[in-house]
Specification:
This protein is α/β, with parallel strands linked by helices. The protein is built from 19 helices and 11 strands. It has a 7-stranded mixed β-sheet with strand order 7-6-5-8-9-11-10, sandwiched between helices. Helix 8 packs across helix 9. The longest helix has 18 residues. The radius of gyration is 23 Å and the shape is globular.
Length: 403
């Protein structure tokens, strides 16, 4: 591979923003890709994948490069040189690479690869927490899986098409996909591509949604004609899936504390042809109280550490802090206590997170069931999805029924 100056400069600029300005990697990459209209698919892929890869392995590369945060521009160039060397890329004779100790880089990599926190590039506190909650062996396997690049999975919008027709339509545009056993609406992309520019996407025939995330709406045991609330709906990936499952019959109340996310959900719902969705902004508790004891199903896709989705959000491991984790656990329990009151007698509720930590999952459900608000509920079933077993995101789902 030959390095092109303008592409490498884009990566360096992006890393400066992510590491030093606290910017989110996905937003930075999105911005970088708009820099030059002349860039082709290969150029854009180089920028996106290289940026994500260096973010993912930040600790390992910085240790090899012998640089410490906050990084200046020279430090970032040194980190880039480590990445390129380990990739087997011949460094061009640019001044930024003067004196790069190629042989020492490889030796240091071999040394550090024996120590998990460097090998898997993770902060000390997070490595300790994972070991404590999952045990040494399980955490090692899961951490390794969470450092792999995520596959691109599509979810067929069954309100408008079916999986086979969608597959044929995409193949006409040279987008090859395969079916996934056990995921009835999913298509796996054989090669990464920007599917958002595809006409089938613009026509609302599919959404991009990880296979594990596609399990959640199914887990709710929803049916056409029901009255359902998706309480932490965000931009609505699972809301739209519920609309498909319900065949546009019944009512879905999509709720969130962030009004701007609900605006995005409305836009997506229109594209999907999902007409049974009503959005409600949770600006205060009255919005919840109005729905007490009135819903057949309630989905709580709770805010969490996001450790199960590190494959697609590698910068989260650097942004996450121990105090956030203790605060979010309080929030999760509060949400369970408050939102469960919307479920009517005989109704069901799903508590889900994209975390792999028992303290955010099974322990939260157990705590809820022994509380005053949870005394009328029983656990029907739960499912823990680990990345190293499924090949997809880490997730947790618990289905609870109200007596």
């Amino acid at each position: 591979m030959r390095l092109h100056r303008n592409l490498v400069f884009a990566v360096i600029d992006g890393l400066m923003m992510i590491f030093n300005e606290g910017a989110y990697a996905d937003k930075v990459v999105e911005k970088l890709l708009k820099r030059d209209k002349r860039w082709g698919a290969r150029d854009r892929a180089f920028i996106a994948e290289t940026t994500y890869e260096i973010v993912r392995w930040k600790r390992l590369y910085a240790e090899i490069a012998e640089v410490k945060e906050p990084f200046d521009r020279d430090n970032i160039w040194r980190i880039f040189a480590v990445w390129a060397t380990l990739k087997g890329i011949k460094l061009p004779d640019w001044k930024y690479f003067d004196g790069t100790p190629t042989r020492r880089i490889k030796g240091r990599f071999d040394e550090l690869s024996r120590i998990r926190k460097y090998k898997e590039s993770i902060p000390d506190w997070l490595d300790e927490l994972g070991t404590e909650e999952l045990g040494n062996d399980l955490w090692s396997k899961e951490l390794h899986a969470l450092n792999q690049q995520a596959s691109v999975i599509l979810r067929t919008n069954t309100l408008k098409t079916n999986k086979r027709d969608l597959q044929k339509k995409l193949a006409e545009d040279e987008i090859e996909t395969s079916f996934l056993k056990e995921y009835p609406d999913a298509l796996l992309l054989k090669e990464r591509s920007n599917v958002f520019t595809n006409q089938a996407f613009k026509d609302g025939l599919f959404e991009v949604q990880d296979a594990s995330s596609q399990k959640v709406a199914k887990f709710l045991d929803a049916a056409p004609g029901m009255r359902i609330a998706d309480t932490c709906a965000g931009a609505g990936g699972k809301t739209l899936h519920l609309a498909s499952i319900m065949e546009n019959k019944g009512q879905i109340i999509a709720m969130d504390i962030y009004e701007n996310k609900l605006k995005e959900l409305k836009r997506r719902a229109k594209r999907n042809g999902a007409h049974n969705i009503e959005t409600r902004w949770i600006e205060n508790n009255k919005v919840i109280k109005k729905l007490y004891n009135s819903l057949d199903r309630v989905l709580i896709d709770a805010p969490c550490s996001g450790l199960g989705v590190l494959r697609r959000n590698p910068d989260a491991k650097w942004k996450l802090q121990p105090e956030f984790l203790s605060n979010i656990k309080e929030t999760q329990q509060q949400i369970l206590q408050d939102y469960s009151k919307m479920v009517k007698s005989g109704g069901k509720m799903v508590y889900a997170t994209c975390s792999i930590l028992p303290s955010e999952n099974q322990e939260q459900v157990a705590k809820f069931l022994t509380s005053e608000s949870g005394k009328d509920f029983s656990l029907v079933k739960d499912e823990k999805v680990l990345s190293h077993q499924s090949g997809f995101d880490g997730f947790y789902m618990a289905l609870l029924e109200k007596k």
